[in-house]
Amino acid sequence: xxxxxxxxxxxxxxxxxxxxxxxxxxxxxxxxxxxxxxxxxxxxxxxxxxxxxxxxxxxxxxxxxxxxxxxxxxxxxxxxxxxxxxxxxxxxxx
Length: 94
Known about the structure:
Blueprint (H helix, E strand, L loop, with lengths): L8 H13 L4 E2 L3 H9 L4 E2 L1 H10 L6 H11 L6 H14 L1
Parallel strand pairs: 1-2
């Protein structure tokens, strides 16, 4: 599999499956996997995008509480600077 040379096997498999099924959206967090998926023309989002969409749909009241929980207990890596920019963007769009 050509993609496996650029990304981990899990990401390569997810990308290949999304292509084969003609998926509308691929949920992927790995940066190399995201770059490859974009190059292949796949629409992508990540964990943060899913959490924000859940908040917009009213499924979670405060997406930042959930993101902090995922960050500290779920192994999701998000920098303090990224979260601050995201908070700032959320405040300005409200």
